[in-house]
Design a protein that fits this description.
By secondary structure, the chain is α+β, with helices and mostly antiparallel strands. It is 34% helix and 31% strand. Bound molecules: guanosine-5'-triphosphate (GTP). This is Translation initiation factor IF-2.
């Protein structure tokens, strides 16, 4: 018996996928997603229901459910074909009679506010391991799906673009993979509705693939897997799918609900399917935004253009932007002087799910910052003042909280944690360093590598390090100036090394800084006072002879007279002949300056220092 995919049937019957799912729910048919398959008899039943509905027989049928097929199937199906989508309307409608069903339909007209809000295009981000083909895939989609703009429009990189598909618009964020994603998320904003995880068919899952999956899962963003490079002879999509199951991600054809689409960014194979799946997913997510609502947006990218000045790409999430609007980002504001869409065309207004490049900010906003609008300049200033005051309150509260935590942590916790973010040039280096670090852990010391990755540290790393009080260690990579600057502002340490063992030494220093140091007194040497010289500036200087070990400047000093200790203090100065020296060895004479003037001939000056004891 042949099976049919739900979305294929929906397409054939010219129904929305959501509507098809309603019918299936009504029939009590279980499915995982719109790409699940259904049995042939169910298909027949659905076709019948839809046909009856379209000829108007549906209502007659609903009026006499028992006459037709078996009641449990028919009745919910009739209910499912009603036009109301809201849970409220549904629960308000007992489904057992035609009168109720008709009633419900009437209710919907007046009662379903959500349908007033129009659908918006999905915003998609593409993530994946280095070289698996993210850029190539985006380029292919851009080349084939982005209509050339009117003459004069210069297409430039703005961090996002809009692709036209047979199912409508899809917006792609094309700033590099997770960087954009994490930076944006680190600020509490979520701009992507769907994450495409690109996995090369000849390479399968790699560390950054896992990282990308983890990011999408953490953001609770639905994922679609694109198995790329299918044109290669060594492509092994089955291995990719099996590897995915090890992460508890089960592809549909293995009975799970993960959508996996084989594609080739080189030949274009499967790209159409991928776009179709994105649209299906968006439809299921029922993405809506009100173009008439209050404006809300997120910065995708900000930069300074030599000619134009500060340019920022903003994704409109709610409401509509107009040239001339006042925008507030963080604690600065600007007035939109000009807007261009992602294809470079000048526009006057932009509604939901539109990435727009804005000219008019006075400062370069950072990606992930939320953007709001203000009625006028005065309102913008008020909003900024309110934000600044609430930030100060939060900062004060944090300082206080930190103090109490510090006070409490000492006695409560005996296990110390060193938080690290590791960045290296290759995965091999990352693994080697992690191996060495793991061996440094002990019962009371935990080395927590919060994030490890290939390539230079990002702003996202700094934000994470800032909140977790972590140090960023780089091996054979260095932070770009912009990231260093943010790190300085946030008091985050970024340290770069070219030799692994120097990096490990730094970790040792961090560990020491984290473990309560234990000091012990170490004997250095002793000297006998042979004469006392009065010095006009330094007070008394004890002319002495070193009889054992050595004496050092700044050492602790103990002066004994016979059996009695007459003084304990510091050896503040040491002189050999007329010169100040750091150390004097056995057998030499020297002038000792103590922070005490009571030394007498015959006294013994013993020097010691406090040294940190190495802890296992
Ligand atoms: N044969 C084949 N090669 C591909 C395909 N997609 C990408 N490539 C090649 O794989 C290499 C990496 O592709 P990119 O698109 O730069 O990969 P990426 O994931 O964006 O890499 P990064 O930006 O460095 O993270 C390039 O040499 C591409 O030409 C494909 O579908 N088939």
């Amino acid at each position: 018996m042949s099976k049919v995919r739900i979305y294929t049937l929906a397409k054939e019957l010219n129904l929305e996928n959501a509507k098809m799912l309603e019918i299936l729910d009504g029939l009590g048919v279980s499915y995982k997603s719109v790409s699940s398959t259904i049995e042939e008899d169910t298909v027949e039943l659905i076709k019948q229901i839809v046909a009856e509905e379209s000829t108007g027989a549906g209502e007659a049928q609903a009026a006499a459910p028992a006459e037709a097929q078996d009641a449990p199937k028919q009745e919910p199906a009739a209910q499912a074909t009603q036009t109301q989508p809201t849970a409220a309307a549904q629960s308000a409608a007992p489904a057992s009679s035609s009168a109720t069903a008709t009633q419900t339909r009437d209710d919907v007209v007046t009662e379903a506010p959500k349908t007033d809000i129009p659908h918006r295009a999905p915003v998609v981000t593409i993530m994946g391991h280095v070289d698996h083909g993210k850029t190539s895939l985006l380029d292919y989609i851009r080349k084939t799906r982005v209509a050339a703009k009117e003459a004069g429009g210069i297409t430039q990189h703005v961090g996002a673009f809009e692709a036209q598909t047979s199912k409508g618009k899809i917006v792609f964020i094309d700033t590099p993979g997770h960087e954009a994603f994490t930076t944006i998320r680190a600020r509490g904003a979520n701009v992507a509705d769907i994450a495409i995880i690109v996995i090369a068919a000849d390479d399968s899952l790699m560390p950054q693939t896992r990282e990308a999956i983890a990011h999408a899962q953490a953001a609770k963003v639905p994922m679609i897997i694109a198995i790329n490079k299918m044109d290669l002879p060594q492509a092994n999509p089955e291995k990719v799918k099996t590897d995915l199951t090890q992460l508890n991600l089960v592809p549909e054809e293995y009975g799970g609900d993960l959508i996996v689409v084989p594609v080739s960014a080189r030949t274009g194979e499967g790209v159409e399917d991928l776009l179709e799946y994105i649209s299906l997913n968006a439809e299921l997510e029922d993405l809506r935004a009100d173009p008439k609502g209050t404006f809300a947006g997120v910065v995708i990218e900000g930069k300074v253009d030599k000619q134009a000045g500060v340019l920022a790409t903003v994704m409109v999430q709610e409401g509509t932007l107009h040239v001339g609007d006042f925008l507030v980002v963080g604690e600065s504001y600007g007035k939109i002087k000009a807007m261009t869409d992602s294809a470079g065309g000048r526009i006057k207004e932009a509604g939901p799910s539109t990435p727009v490049q804005i000219l008019g900010f006075s400062e370069v906003p950072t990606s992930g910052e939320k953007v709001s609008s203000a009625k006028n300049e005065h309102a913008a200033r008020d909003l900024i003042a309110a934000r600044a005051s609430s930030r100060r309150d939060t900062e004060n509260a944090q300082v206080q909280r930190k103090l109490t935590l510090e006070e409490m942590m000492g006695p409560l916790s005996t296990v110390r944690t060193v938080n690290l973010i590791l960045r290296a040039d290759t995965q091999g280096s990352v693994e080697a360093i992690q191996g060495i670090l793991a061996r440094k852990e002990s019962e009371d010391l935990k080395i927590n590598v919060m994030l490890s990755g290939i390539g230079a540290p990002t702003e996202g790393d700094v934000l994470l390090a800032g909140t977790a009080e972590a140090t960023i260690l780089c091996f054979s990579v260095t932070a770009p100036g912009s990231v260093t600057k943010i790190a300085e502002n946030k008091g985050v340490d970024i340290k770069s090394f070219r030799i692994i063992y120097e990096l490990i030494d730094e970790v040792d220093r961090l560990i020491k800084g984290n473990v309560e140091p234990v000091f012990e007194e170490k004997y250095l040497g002793r000297a006998e006072v042979r004469m006392v010289i009065k010095h006009p500036r330094f007070g008394n200087i004890a002319g002495s002879y070193v009889t054992d070990g050595s004496l050092k400047r700044n050492a602790r000093a103990k002066v004994t007279r016979g059996k009695e200790t007459v003084y304990e203090g510091t050896l503040v100065g040491l002189k050999r002949l007329k010169d100040d020296v750091r150390e004097v060895q056995t057998g030499y004479e020297c002038g000792i300056n103590l922070d005490w003037d009571g030394a007498e001939v015959g006294d013994i000056i013993e020097a010691s220092e406090m040294v940190e004891v190495e802890q296992a």
